[in-house]
């Protein structure tokens, strides 16, 4: 393993950490299993790539990508809150619809950005003393930190607390006069806006946008959330939770890199990325129960030894 591969995995972990924060908002804050993510991630990439490919400003491309993600989340919320579809069906419908939308936005299945000015090139011009290998992780770290701070602040506001309460006990918060339809709309728009932002940054980082780049995004996001929350436990405040989600994304990407690099010894192939992702989710889900059983076994053995004495 080379250090460049490790740093590459960490850079991807930071970019996808924003997506994981979006997944956290729906799956854990709102308690809403939203499959729109598999469509809103490539939507953000498609919008950014199309704007940059035609000579547009990369910062404007990011803004429009976020707008697209917000609209995608709003459509899912409309299906669920107004048309009374189930949360799963609402997400599936939007995800399927976005496949055609993404094709229309890009005009073809793949848009290369080689030779086009991306956000990385802009910052390289601003800070010529830094190499590309130094600039990329610093830039992504700053972006992720800014997104995390803004999300922490928002969830601490009155609206944010209402969204948290909606996920904890929807009937109770509705009895207090809060319109849970509004909180769901805001939460879904926020979540998919973050996911689209991640897609936009990833397209500019990888140098292309592809119609299939969103397949399995929800699994990667869930894996990051579950790994982070399983390994880093014991703190209940929002700031610590969002930090654990980002760390989970970093751990997930590094683990995938190791699996793809050395997994041939276990029979894995380069095309087994989605299989590895699912296995990581399964391991992360079973880890707390497995750890609890070991702890209970150790406690019981200790009690038995004490009784024998």
How do you describe this structure in short?
The protein has 309 residues and is an all-alpha fold. The chain is built from 12 helices and 2 strands, in the order ααααβαααααβααα.
Give a structural overview.
The chain has 309 residues and is an all-alpha fold. The protein has one domain (3-308): Orthogonal Bundle (ABC transporter involved in vitamin B12 uptake, BtuC), CATH 1.10.3470. Helix content is 78%, strand content 2%. The chain contains twelve helices and two strands, in the order H-H-H-H-E-H-H-H-H-H-E-H-H-H. It has helices at 3-29, 37-53, 58-81, 87-106, 119-126, 132-155, 158-168, 170-175, 180-206, 217-231, 238-262, 273-308; strands spanning 110-112, 208-210. A two-stranded antiparallel ribbon has the order 1-2. Helix 1 (3-29) runs antiparallel to helix 9 (180-206), helix 2 (37-53) packs antiparallel against helix 3 and helix 10 (217-231) packs across helix 11. The chain is globular and about 60 Å long. The mean pLDDT is 87.
